[in-house]
Design a protein that fits this description.
Blueprint lengths: L1 E7 L3 E8 L4 E8 L15 E2 L1 H21 L7 E8 L5 E3 L9 E2 L7 H10 L1 H7 L8 H11 L1 H6 L1 E3 L1 H10 L4 E3 H4 L14 H4 L10 E3 L4 E4 L2 H7 L6 E7 H8 L8 E5 L3 E5 L13 E4 L5 E7 L4 H6 L5 H11 L5 E3 L18 E3 L5 H25 L7 E5 L6 H11 L2 E5 L4 H11 L6 H8 L2 E5 L3 H20 L4
Parallel strand pairs: 1-5, 5-12, 9-10, 13-19, 19-20
Antiparallel strand pairs: 1-2, 2-3, 4-7, 6-8, 11-12, 13-14, 14-16, 15-16, 17-18, 20-21
Helix pairs in contact: 1-6, 2-4, 10-15, 12-13, 12-14, 13-14, 14-17, 15-16
């Protein structure tokens, strides 16, 4: 019995077919075709054509089903399919599922005014769930369409990117999941669309999808879709998650007290909590866990971007090899390379800094790795102060997790074991969602059975003691500059 995870990202689509133990049997990826004509959008706008996502998904699905056949498998043994995609992306459809305009992407920030109005109108929800609408959220973008494109709004249904692909698979475009619906204002406690959406910002609730839990069956692969993709007609399609949640699940973190740090361009932290974590400053917000828990988390503007910015063209593997010789360094670095920070503190004017003079570029490189580790520790200390339970192991994914030397530095700073899974693909986390209520009883069981731990490092007691002193000096340097 197999399951299929489909990850629809910013640049392309990835599909993974695996068995119930998480062994990958087939995988494929496809970049989105370049647009025939590049349209110059205003600053802060980002749009994509949803049909491009579907075209790439069809290529991937045909590739994995054909690979199964060639290797002696049968696509009809795929029990369930699930889809993840970008959080906050808005797809505007007519009643037949055809896009009425390009999708407004997750990183589109045109709806600043509308976000403020949503925070005002939805003050009770904002207080209850302890987050604030930003221009990147879906609901302000929907309000922007109502204001600026009334003819489109009149005919529109508003869904999320993952919903659109699931709709192409099944013909059901009217169902979403709690993970994607969060940024559209869904009440994760009362499990309904709140009244203010219709009564105060004039978005009729019948323009929004029905919301179910990730892993719930929402339909079956249609006959038409089976002919296009190679999937068997009647294959179950289950509700998916956002790409951030999929990446978290792919890390193997699933029990209360489990946390994952994803080091990509930025540092993204998410974990499992029994209780809703409320942060008065809005640095943390929580998704609902399908098994009844909460998934609090947030993102720092620090991450591996500093390495690309400062060490562009350098062989990072070569630099990594020297890190054990230089760490702990005598330098203190806050590794921002652009203005503004959002976690562990909020300051749109914050800037990075270096205390000390590096002996050479190798020491500077090691110091930037340490700086991200210091920020990571600060984030976890903040979460603990807010009431989060944090275990002795930190799961890690993202490009920054590929460096064992960086993993060791972080383990020493955090004084925790750091574990990287065998596969860090979002599609693996989505495959676990596909299995969570079709092959297994729940998501925790599916993740434990399917996600394989890879390399792990333990903290070095001697270095941990030295880093304790360096971290305190780092926090003092931050306080001196008004950071936090």
């Amino acid at each position: 019995m197999y399951v299929l995870g489909l990850d629809v990202g910013t640049q392309g689509v990835r599909a993974v077919v695996c068995d119930e133990e998480g062994n990958v049997l087939a995988q494929a990826s496809e970049q989105f075709a370049p647009a025939d004509q590049v349209e110059l959008l205003p600053p802060g706008w980002a749009e994509q054509n949803p049909s491009d996502w579907w075209d790439a998904a069809v290529v991937c699905l045909n590739a994995v089903t054909e690979h199964l056949r060639q290797s002696g498998g049968d696509p009809s043994d795929i029990k369930a399919v699930s889809v993840d995609s970008t959080s906050g992306t808005v797809v505007v459809l007519d009643r037949t599922g055809e896009p009425l305009r390009p999708a407004i992407m997750y990183n589109d920030t045109r709806a600043v005014t509308e976000a403020a109005e949503c925070n005002s109108a939805g003050a009770d929800l904002v207080e209850k769930l302890a987050y604030r609408f930003s221009a990147a959220f879906a609901l302000p973008k929907i309000l922007w369409v109502r204001r600026n494109q009334p003819d489109v709004f009149e005919r529109a249904l508003f869904v999320h990117a993952a919903d659109y692909i699931a709709g192409r698979l099944t013909g059901n475009f009217l169902t979403s999941d709690t993970s994607n619906a969060l940024k559209t204002g869904y009440d994760l406690i009362e499990h309904r669309w709140p009244d203010f959406i219709e009564s105060q910002i004039a978005v009729p609730l019948d323009k929004l999808p029905k919301v179910v839990s990730p892993g719930d069956v929402i339909g079956e692969v249609s006959g038409e879709c089976a002919g296009l993709t190679g999937l068997a007609r009647g294959t179950l399609v289950v509700a998916g998650v956002t790409d951030g949640t999929a990446g978290f699940l792919a890390s193997g973190a699933v029990k209360v007290g489990d946390w994952n740090s994803t080091i990509g361009t930025t540092l993204v932290i998410r974990g499992v909590s029994r209780e809703l974590i409320k942060d008065p400053q809005g640095r943390i917000y929580s998704h609902a866990h399908p098994d009844g828990y909460w998934l609090p988390g947030g993102a720092s503007n620090c991450g591996a971007e500093c390495l690309r910015h400062l060490f562009q063209g350098r062989d990072l593997d070569h630099l990594n090899a020297y890190v054990p010789q230089y760490s702990p360094t005598a330098l203190l670095v806050y590794p921002l390379v652009r203005t503004g920070e959002r976690l562990p503190f909020v300051d749109p004017t914050a800037e990075g800094f270096i205390v000390g003079e590096p002996r050479d570029s190798r020491e500077l490189y090691a110091a930037y790795l340490e700086g991200v580790g210091y920020v990571e520790r600060w984030c976890y200390e903040l979460l603990a102060e807010l009431g989060a339970e944090i275990g002795d192991t930190i799961f890690t994914t993202g490009g920054g997790a590929r460096s064992p030397e960086w993993m060791q530095v972080r383990a020493d700073i955090l004084n925790k074991r750091v574990v990287r899974p065998v596969s860090t693909e979002c599609a693996m986390g989505t495959a676990a969602v596909a299995a969570s209520k079709t092959v297994y009883a729940d998501l925790e069981t599916a993740v434990q059975a399917m996600i394989k731990p890879g390399e792990s490092v333990d903290p070095d007691p001697m270095r941990t003691e030295l880093y304790e002193q360096r971290y305190r000096a780092f926090r003092s340097a931050c306080a001196h500059r008004g950071h936090g």
